[in-house]
Design a protein that fits this description.
- Strands 2-1-5-8-9-4-3 form a seven-stranded antiparallel beta sheet.
- The protein has helices spanning 73-81, 94-100, 110-114, 206-240, 247-254; strands at 36-42, 45-51, 54-58, 63-69, 83-88, 118-119, 128-129, 134-146, 149-161, 181-184, 187-189, 244-246, 270-272.
- It is of the alpha+beta class and 277 residues long.
- It is built from five helices and 13 strands.
- The termini are far apart.
- A hairpin with a 2-residue loop joins strand 8 and strand 9 (149-161).
- The relative contact order is 0.11.
- It has two domains: 26-189, Electron Transport, Fmn-binding Protein, Chain A (Pnp Oxidase, Chain A), CATH 2.30.110; 235-277, no CATH class.
Length: 277
């Protein structure tokens, strides 16, 4: 049997286009998850803080974890309250999220400052933010110091979500309201595409299933190449006629730089791009 090299370390990096990341900032490479507005109530005062450091921990029992910087006022609130709510905001609350991150609950009532409406939870005293699209009520069962953060382990007591954005298994990217995702800094995003990965069945041989997938991908690649050639042929005819050509749209659709195609003479047509729109 021949020895496979798959999974073995490469002698060099797979690409020259790599950059070193400061280890202190490396956690940002894990950004992209949904934003969580964590609410808590203690001694009659309620507070909210936006975070992106949260994670599922267990299905049985149902546990989630949230990490807050130890110096934060919100961290003290959670420690005293012993419970919290993860509110998942939609895109429409993006500006609220950014603003909430700039305030300290020690200096100002964040709910009054942002005019966010709330409603009562099923199991905890912390408020649920009305304009969010999903809510997870938790009881704190453990606190762990992790460097400059305090990690709260929450036992899920109750969870709710709008049926328009969640089908019981996953979020629906084509719904009018989708969860807000944090990309780092002041950058956010939303779901815009959903697809299903192909996986072999229990009785399938992994090698045969993989070969079938590769063949399908190759066929799809051929179809895309044929479409590109067909579109480039049409474009060449339009250029010969001196017609107006929208290069930006075509480049986006075909995924190529038209200026690098030797068979095209863009000077023969009227090119419409950012410089003359």
């Amino acid at each position: 049997m021949s020895e496979s090299t798959f999974g073995s370390p490469l002698s060099s990096a797979p690409s020259d286009d790599l950059q070193a990341i400061d280890t202190i900032l490396a956690n940002r490479l894990l950004s992209g998850g949904v934003v969580a507005l964590v609410t808590s109530t203690w001694r009659g005062q309620s507070n909210v803080i936006p975070i992106s450091w949260h994670t599922p921990l267990s299905s049985s029992p149902p546990l989630v974890g949230v990490a807050l910087e130890q110096s934060r006022y919100s961290t003290d609130m959670l420690s005293h309250a012993g419970e919290f709510v993860i509110n998942i905001p939609p895109k429409e609350l993006a500006n609220h999220v950014g603003y909430l991150g700039s305030l300290s609950g020690e200096d100002v009532n964040k709910f009054e400052a942002t005019q966010l409406e709330t409603f009562s939870g099923r199991r905890v005293a912390a408020p649920l933010i009305s304009d969010c699209c999903a809510w997870i009520e938790c009881e704190i069962v453990e606190r762990i110091e992790t460097g400059d953060h305090l990690f709260f382990v929450g036992l899920i007591l109750s969870a709710q979500a709008h049926t328009a954005i969640y089908d019981g298994k996953s979020f629906l990217p084509k719904s009018e309201t989708t969860p807000l995702h944090f990309l780092g800094g002041h950058n956010y995003s939303t779901l815009h595409e959903s697809f299903v990965a192909r996986t072999p069945g229990g009785s399938d041989a992994p090698e045969e299933a993989l070969q079938s997938m590769l063949e399908d991908d190759l066929e799809l690649s051929r179809e895309m190449q044929e479409r590109k050639e067909e579109e480039l042929g049409k474009l060449a005819k339009e250029l010969e006629k001196g017609n107006v050509i929208d290069t930006k749209t075509l480049e986006s659709e075909l995924g190529i730089d038209l200026g690098s195609v030797d068979s095209l003479d863009l000077s023969r047509g009227i090119v419409l791009d950012d410089s003359n729109t």
